[in-house]
Amino acid sequence: MIIHRRTVARAAVWEGLGLHSGVPTRVTLQPGEDGIWFRHGQSRWRACPAEVTDTQRSTKLGDVSTIEHLMSALGGLEITDVDIEVSAPELPAAGGSAAEYVEGLIAAGFVSLPDREVKDLFARVFVQDGDAKIAIAAGHGHWGYRYDLGDRWPGIQEVEFRGLPDAYAKEIAPARTFGLIEELPHLERLGLARGLDEKSALVLGAEGYENAPLFPDEPARHKLLDAIGDLYLAGVPIRYLDVVGERSGHRTNVQAAAKLKMAIDGTTI
Predict the structure, then answer these.
(1) Where are the domains of the chain?
(2) Does the domain made of 2-120 have the CATH classification 3.30.230.20?
(3) In 3D, which of 63, 65, 76 has the Cα closest to residue 104?
(4) Among 150, 152, 170, 153, residue whose Cα is nearest residue 161
(5) Which residues are catalytic?
(6) What pLDDT, in 10s, does the model give residues 90-130?
(7) Which CA distances in Å does 104 have to 18, 73, 171?
(8) What angle do CA 93, 242, 100 make, to 5 degrees?
(9) Distance CA 18, CA 219 (A)
């Protein structure tokens, strides 16, 4: 498998409130040549499954929370090498999706780097954790996700995209984070989702959306957005994979990323 590497032509900056903490934060992305790295203060972590420290409500790398939306944008735009510095231990909400990151990265422009060859994926990767499942095989960018709430509205939503990353920027990146209306008091008690509002998060009521969705199946699209970001921790371009997820969250996604990385290069580092 040949990985066509690229970085950004110049720096890109985003500012805002941390998605969960609500703390003001700034993220600066610079050109790089040694993979994807996150830095906060004097500490630095490579974007890989072994550096993930928490998967509750978001994916945390070292002490930096909510990296999944930016990682998804990097995967969707096939950016392989960048240095990322954050001023606080969480990335900004950035509209609750990957769209603002995609726009900023495209505006920064891209520079090609020397190609890298890695082992092909021969064996299927499969992870199941209760009802959560994710299956990965070598393929051609065929990604699907099944969001299943059972008897609770909206029941089952399924999305499927062929030939990713072609449709990523328009069809997946804008899908916002979401929550069930009955969960909101619990999130407030936990001090979570403080950086979100009615424009950056979709609320699922008992019989319909409480605010206007960008897509009829926006929750399923956002779950796929998250899966792309988490699985990109393995460093495999999304165009080389066929992936199906069902009820999977960050924990299952990161477990799958670790198995995928092991299958490709024999290490979780």
Answers:
(1) 2-120
(2) yes
(3) 76
(4) 170
(5) 250
(6) 999 999 999 999 999 999 999 999 999 988 888 899 999 99
(7) 18, 10, 17
(8) 20
(9) 21
